[in-house]
């Protein structure tokens, strides 16, 4: 009897949330993706380090806001300098906005001055759907134990205006600073804003 | 891939004025045409040679009339396939911003957002957006005086427009409107089309049940009528993200909507019913009724503003003609109390205040009870009930006799004190009762303030109705409470003396005049016979009161007391049992149907019915619609001074205006519904449907003058 109730509740929960998107505090779903240099990366490879996942689409005005103002690159530099692994993930399907070949990806990385550890190509959208990523930019922070400690928006100013970067509270910076100092993350979940991820 | 959305149908009509029977007007409009071109300004967003969004700023008026509110609209026309976003964009996107920079003294209401559409992108990414065209609307309030010939309003608009990709857009627009003493409607088609798509903050015409579930909320909808499909769009809440609700088909007027929201936090949003057309209502999970905080068009400030209106309205009730007799009564009471100790005076003030509060809260309780019972309850509805009128009449009559000195109210246990104060007053209970009476008589006065506040209150939750009525009570009681707390301020009042007894007696006459008015209303409702039976009943009450006053005092003998008590019982039996219970009650059946228009005036009124109104409007006839009732003194006053005049009669005839009368003397659900369409809960109320303006009647002020009316119908410039 008890089992039936539990199963029903579990099913209801699953039905309600649609995709079983990972919850903050739970282990981040495992994945393997190839980067723009043809190198394969498994999330488990980075155990023992903080990992940032950043959903990326260079055609999206919200992404442009954070790259054109150089704030995303600064953030990447600052934290990869503190031994944080920064993975940009492109889930745009072939033919859709933001999709890039490995060569184009490297060219964009250089042009933009991205300091990400790697740019991972997810053109069938599997990992994007696994994480329930809906927009670009959408960010996730994973702790050295492999648990998700932040998911959501880059900051609290929902706009496409680069001038709004200044003065905004950057949630990713906040989460990383707190976690690196051994403190719990004060804002572990926010509503991401941005363009839709261009899935197939 | 997908079918391009059909091109926008409405067109901008910058120079279109209301058609009028007067040819001269059209000539004037033609002359002014270049001027009207200023009533909108446009800007286009280009992307790779394609026009993605055309942004246009426009107003619903040709000129700014100081003191009058107008609407400013931001019209976005999107290229086929592209969309801009609702206030909560959904999974991705960005809400459009529409920020007017207003001159000092002008204020803008919040943005009104028409109902959005649900667009589902690959990867089950759902957004709430607009395709084709959308008009965002903001109300602009203007100061009472504007010291300029014209006003320019710059507007900064930003938006995100998306198809497969998203492009941000912005426009700096500016609208210049002349300042004038009157104005014509502008762009009526657009404003009518999109304001009809704004969600309603009123009570939805269906039943709702919110149930917390492990995943959020289940919203059960029942009795939705003819609608085929139901949908829910949540308002954005950063603290409690709300997931997407799958739209459901309605089966026998019922559907359950699942609203995902972890932990079942309070959820606000709009329920949209589709039946060819779409209609939306603002709903909230905290209560089973519409959001008490107001509509998206009036967030938060709504309730407080209305409570303030209630307070002011309550205060003004003291000044209304139908309370005047009681006012004199009360002022007299204060003068009398001025001789008392300060503490006593305050006690009286508090008792009076308690009476006012008791009445209003009691009224609130009754309204809440009736509302939940599904009755159509409106302000002043009490006077539609002849029984109510009879009872009030009896109370007033007995009060008048008291003032004449026929009997004194002596409280048990305070008999000696009552003797000492004989000829003066009825103690705290008297003040309490006066508080109740004062409010009782104030109810038929729908002051403009109060009308607005109550129109709001009646569509609200029980708690808000109670708060609303408490505010009115506080406003009404305020001056008395103040005077009783600061009796020093009464020192300017005349000193007590023998003249007070004369004054007290005199006060009985205005009360009797009020009684005459009540009997007149009863006569209108139930016929002459009912008036006679009610008066006979009052006569018996009077006899009982005299017996009580003359023979039941402490100085009377036991035998006299016994006889008097018997006489009182007999009088009451005859009066209440026979005249009231039997004859007055039966007079109801004798009353002819009063739905026919009162043919008393020189105006050839057509009785109101929705069907007849629609038929006339379909023919393109102009219609003047007068909502009135016999018990409404303001209505009568307006009729005599502003409507049933030679000039108006001639203008009606000349312009072919059909005068239509909605007589609300007795409860009439059809009229109540019509009033509710305009958020009104009382009369007087006046509408003018100009030719071809069937959807957009002009609302005339409650305190009407001949000149206002003639101007509104176009008979005077």
Features:
heterodimer; A: 200 residues; alpha+beta; Glutaredoxin; 7-stranded mixed β-sheet; two-stranded antiparallel sheet; 18% strand; B: 717 residues; Immunoglobulin-like; 4 domains; 5-stranded antiparallel β-sheet; 5-stranded mixed β-sheet; 23 strands; 21% strand; disordered N terminus
Structural overview:
The complex is a heterodimer of chains A (200) and B (717). Chain A is of the alpha+beta class and 200 residues long. The N terminus of chain A is likely disordered. Chain A is 30% helix and 18% strand. In chain A, strand 7 and strand 8 form a beta hairpin. Chain A has six helices and nine strands. Chain A has one domain: Glutaredoxin (3-Layer(aba) Sandwich), CATH 3.40.30. With 717 residues, chain B is α+β, with helices and mostly antiparallel strands. Chain B folds into four domains: 173 residues, Immunoglobulin-like, CATH 2.60.40; 78 residues, Immunoglobulin-like, CATH 2.60.40; 173 residues, no CATH class; 107 residues, Glutaredoxin (3-Layer(aba) Sandwich), CATH 3.40.30. In chain B, 40% of the residues lie in helices and 21% in strands. Chain B contains 19 helices and 23 strands. Chain B has a five-stranded antiparallel beta sheet. In chain B, strands 19-21-20-22-23 form a five-stranded mixed beta sheet, with helices on both faces. Chain B has a four-stranded antiparallel beta sheet with strand order 15-14-17-18, with no helix packed on it. In chain B, a hairpin with an 8-residue loop joins strand 22 and strand 23. The longest helix of chain B has 33 residues. The N terminus of chain B is likely disordered. The chains are: A alpha+beta (200), B alpha+beta (717). Chains A and B meet through helix 1 and strand 9 of A and strand 10 and strand 11 of B.
